[in-house]
Amino acid sequence: MFSIRWPSALTDSLRSGAAPLGYKRLLLPIALTMLVLSPNTRELAITTLSDSFWAVSTYVALTLAIYHYLSRWINSTHRFVVAFQRSRHLQVIIASLLGALPGCGGAIVVTTQFVNGRLGFGSLVAVLTATMGDAAFLLLASRPLTGLGVIAIGIVTGCITGLVVNTLHGDDFMRPKNTQAAQQPPANTHTALNHRAINLQGIFWQWAIIPASLVAFAQSFQIDVNTRLGLPAHSIEWLGASLAVTAMVLWALTREIDSYQSAVSENEKVRQAHPLQKAAQDTNFVSAWVIIAFLIFELMRHFTGWEMSNDWQQWEVWMPAVGIIVGMLPGCGPQILITSFYLAGSVPLSTQLANAISNDGDALFPAIALAPKAALFATIYTSIPAIVVGYGYFWLFEI
Hey, which of 67-81, 86-100, 172-186, 336-350 has the most confident mean pLDDT? Predict the structure, then answer.
């Protein structure tokens, strides 16, 4: 399915010193290994890594695989882009629908179309309001009904916000005069080691997705897989932890960290790549931030005894504001942290809703690069409906 050479190419690169100090992501699998080796944190680390792999990564991979397979055959983005030319109000509606697509692809399309002069500022605000970025995959995989509800709220809010902005500003509001930069494709900065690690990610999930899904489904139905398969106690937990660390090693080698964007945004994907290859890249990116969030939560409880879920009620009026502030940070990584905390019960749904409306995902990076003033104003505008939705839900259902 993936035409590459098996891991010898990767090990040869590592032996020859081809992995430079820029691969700061390796700190994560190294830290995970240390937590597993330490007797004081071994049980916590094994449980957390196992749960993150079986209960989160596997479902995210399955959701992403289905999504990318469907995207391969139903290229609705191009049809929507053609329809953009009909009316500025229809642009807002379609931009909201594109923003609602899990991931950042639809939002990035609208952002570049705005910079190129084909869409209005209202469409830019609408797509950034509606998008959840990669956090949508995590929420859909873990709590599908809640995920669909949050996405639906994002679409409606994006449409309303975009239409209001259309009445306040013209289509060219904050559009940069020089748009030549938008025509230049991004340079491919992947090294040979990056390509090998990316391909190995695809192979990893090609072989793991079906058996891992069976284990995940069994655990969801409270079936003791160790007992059913006649395995020693905790075998599945150790296997899940080992697979999680392996996935993180591969993820760490797919990209060097040389900027804030390279740390918090998803990896670039080849458009013609196999759907499982794209799913693998997104899955490991989401999994890395989920593991970080889960470990922050568990280690804090382990060493201090502090339960975030018990204490947020004392600060409940500020929780939607936390979601909004984090949502204003570019990139999908911080937003996945908020969603992970919500799934763990550490923050309320009002925080998740406020973050979903406020967050602009990776689409904010091209906006900052190509139209920084428009990006600033759009971020401010998306925070306004985030306040309304987040605090509206808080006052109606959580107080």
Answer: 336-350
**Residues 86-98: b if buried by 16+ CB within 10 A, e if exposed:** eebeebbbbbbbb
Q: How many CB atoms lie within 10 A of CB 170?
A: 11
Q: Is the pLDDT of residue 245 over 60?
A: yes
Q: What is the pLDDT of residue 260?
A: 85
Residue 331, H or E segment: none
Distance, in Å, from the CA atom of 87 to the CA atom of 161, rounded to the nearest integer, reads: 17
Q: Residue range 192-219: average pLDDT?
A: 92
Report the distance separating Cα 147 and Cα 335, nearest Å.
Answer: 14
C-alpha Rg value of the chain to the nearest Å = 21
CB under 8 Å, gap of 24 or more: what pairs does 150-154 form? Answer: 150/352, 150/353, 150/356, 151/100, 151/102, 153/353, 153/356, 153/357, 153/389, 154/96, 154/99, 154/100, 154/129, 154/130, 154/356, 154/357
Share of the chain residues as helix, strand and coil, in percent rounded to the nearest 5: 75, 0, 25
- Contact by Cβ (8 Å): 20, 256: yes
Give dist(CA 394, CA 318) in Å, integer: 10
Mean pLDDT, rounded, for 79-99: 77
Q: What is the pLDDT of residues 138-155, one digit of tens each?
A: 999 999 999 999 999 999
pLDDT of 112 over the 50 cut: yes
pLDDT digits (tens, 9 = 90+) for 281-295: 999 999 999 999 999
What are the structure tokens assigned to 153, written together?
Answer: 């709220």
Task: Pull the structure tokens for residue 48.
Answer: 């957390």
Element (H, E) at 244: helix 235-252
Amino acid residing at 257: I
Please name the residue that has the structure tokens 């918090």.
264
pTM for this structure?
A: 0.86
> Cβ distance 378 to 125 under 8 Å?
yes
pLDDT of residue 178: 65
- Cα gap 309→320, rounded to integer Å: 15
**Coil, helix or strand for 269?**
coil
